[in-house]
Design a protein that fits this description.
Helix content is 22%, strand content 26%. β5 and β6 form a beta hairpin. Bound molecules: zinc ion. The site of zinc ion has 8 residues, from loops.
């Protein structure tokens, strides 16, 4: 028997975004509720994550704003838009995917 586990979250379930430095694995978490600005520099090693005003910075802020709007849009909508997330590795078994 093959079982398949899927995990879905709605935008309303999202509470915070974490920025994780790839160099030292330090992280900073920003709650969506009180979002002000994405950190452009790692607070630990001072690595520059992006340049203020760059296309990447604008895309990041636009993405955060979209997530915040979708979180509140769920409240009045007749549907819930959910995102499937991967938990653990998925292994292809006989044409389907299952979590391991
Ligand atoms: Zn760092």
């Amino acid at each position: 028997m093959t079982t398949e586990q899927k995990t879905f979250i709605s935008f309303g379930d999202l509470l915070a975004l974490e920025f994780r430095c790839k160099a030292y694995r330090s992280s900073v978490t920003r709650p969506l509720k009180d979002w002000r600005q994405a950190p452009a520099v790692c607070g630990n090693c001072r690595a520059q994550w992006f340049t203020d005003g760059s296309e990447e910075h604008h895309l990041l802020e636009a993405s955060v704003n979209m997530v915040k709007r979708m979180a509140t849009a769920d409240e009045g909508a007749k549907y819930v838009l959910r995102v499937e997330i991967k938990i653990g590795e998925q292994v292809k078994v006989h044409g389907s995917y299952s979590a391991t």
